[in-house]
Each structure stands twice: as structure tokens, then as C-alpha cells.
Amino acid sequence: MAQNKIARFGPVAIANAATDVLNPADAGAGQVGYTPTASYIILRHIRIVNKTAGAVTFSAWLGATGASAAGTEVIGTGKSIPANDVYDWYGMMILNTVDFLVMLASAAASLTFEAEGEIGLV
């Protein structure tokens, strides 16, 4: 029986334009001797770090594209993180191969995304 693997994602700088920061791998093609399967991610903790001397905001979306579509907002929408501080989110968010976790910061390279969770195979 397959078992999920505990994983860390990031750290990665959050851009000041909507950018895909996390997306599970699809099944792929070209393997010989076995049938590849798609993966999924279960996020249990997300940390956003503000490494600057001023407050910076972030927003996050969970959608079917690497864009910031209305109605797909999750976690923070213009959430302000004070200077030299962190924001921690705890919960459970499942990302399938069609899901993209997209983030945007109010200032480029000021915030860092890092997360922990599990990777599993469909």
C-alpha cells in the first residue's frame, strides 16, 4: 500500500505579479515498465515571511490556472504582514494536478513562501 511522503515546499520569493508558487505534477508520459500516476499535495502549514523593514501585503488564489481569477481567493486577500514578521496558516488544503496556488505581494522579493505537507499519488 502506497503512503504519502512528508514534504517541504519552498522557500520561494513571492513576486509583485500573480505567480504560481505550487502545483502538483501530472502523470507525464514516456515511462517504460510501469504506469505513471498523477500526484496531489496536502498542505498543512504555510508560512509567509516578511524580510523587509516595512509592512507588505499578500494575496493567494487556488485555481485552475496560474492567474488571479476572481472567486478563487484563499488564505489572504491583501493580508498585511508587519515588518520583519511572519504569517502562519494551519489547516488542510488539497491541491490536485489541475490546481495552482498563486500568490502576489505588494512589493517584489519582500515576502517568502514556505510550506509543509504531504505528497501522494492518485
Fold topology:
Blueprint: E1 5-14, E2 19-22, E3 39-50, E4 56-63, E5 73-81, E6 86-95, E7 100-105, E8 111-121
Antiparallel strand pairs: 1-8, 2-7, 3-6, 3-8, 4-5, 4-7
- CATH architecture field: Sandwich
- CATH topology heading: Jelly Rolls
* Spatial order of strands in the largest sheet: 1-8-3-6
Specify the CATH homologous superfamily: Nucleoplasmin core domain
Total helices: the number is 0
* Number of DSSP-assigned strands: 8
Tell me, briefly, the overall form: elongated
Count up the domains: 1
> H/E series, N to C?
EEEEEEEE
> In what range is the share of β-strand residues?
over 45%
In which range does the helix fraction lie? under 10%
Question: How would you describe this structure in keywords?
Answer:
four-stranded antiparallel beta sheet; Jelly Rolls; mainly beta; 122 residues
Description:
The strands form 2 sheets. The chain has a 4-stranded antiparallel β-sheet with strand order 1-8-3-6, with no helix packed on it. A 4-stranded antiparallel β-sheet has the order 2-7-4-5, with no helix packed on it. It is mostly beta strands and 122 residues long. It has one domain (5-26, 36-121): Jelly Rolls (Sandwich). The chain is elongated. The chain has strands at residues 5-14, 19-22, 39-50, 56-63, 73-81, 86-95, 100-105, 111-121. The mean pLDDT is 90.
